[in-house]
Predict the structure.
Amino acid sequence: MTRHAPPPHLRRPARAAGSNAASRFERHDREAFDDGWDIPEDSRLLRTEVRLERPRSALVWNRSPDLPFDRSVNPYRGCEHGCIYCFARPSHAFLGLSPGLDFETRLVARPGIAAVLDRELRARKYRPAPIALGTNTDPYQPCDAEHRLAREVVQVLHDHRHPLAITTKGTLVERDLDLLAPMAAQGLVAVGVSLTTLDPALSRRMEPRAPAPARRLETIRRLASAGVPVRAMIAPVVPGLTDHELEPLMQAARGAGAVAARFIALRLPLEVAPLFRDWLAEHEPGRAAHVMNRVREMHGGRDYDPEFGRRMTGQGLWADLLARRFALAARRFGLDAPQPALRTDLFRPPARPGDQLNLFGDVPPG
């Protein structure tokens, strides 16, 4: 995979990737080259672009034994939060875009996805089970302030009384408390808030456009105060860089009102590995070798092990120690109690104009 530094005239403040890596599907590679004949270009700011895509389907199905859900919805492709470690970066290659800077700056919004979801939920063969929102890229990333697709999806699930599990590090989730709080009261929703570090300087470098750690803890506090159950997602745990913060992160999350916790070890699939190594060399040169050595010790000598059952936790001595530390901390801070399953028995598509009324009133189908 070829990695190119951005042109020197291009300013990229608050961007994590240092290059626009060619995707694994590209047959040809292009690189800007200054031969001395071109007119010097003025300094230009790298801005976020959002293009629109009309979705043909909303639900994405999976059979992964590592995941606690079998269906999800993704209103956006790419993510402006720009977390350098994001395992979803390789998905941008399917769009003919780079998992590097393109992933952070050339986003795709999918207006109309809520209407498509509504249609899919009304299918005769559909059977309800929790829908995950925010499994690939963050539904509450900054551009949702304008496009509001996350709210539209939540509105549909609220109206259908459908169970929903959200994962986010975006504060925009607080905007939708008027929908989430009533769903929580019915046992229909839970939210996972991602926490990586308590160090604001490290967070700024590693996840440059995500809310600061203290602000994410405040989001946990506001959700919990509204009665929404919150799980602290300690993810990813970066060995040699953030693993020492495992217990402080869990303690802070508990203090903010989280009722459960989960951890995921750093994952570096496909194009993410070289991007992360480049980031380490630029931002943590003194620890780069140590971090990558520890990563490889946890993944069988490789940057990443994609095998089910190991890809999210790692294997070996350091992985076992991390899992034990997490279990002890979860017990100490009261984050290990089993959480009630989200309800599916309340599911009922709302009536539409022209629909035949139910003879027996508002009774969920059995």
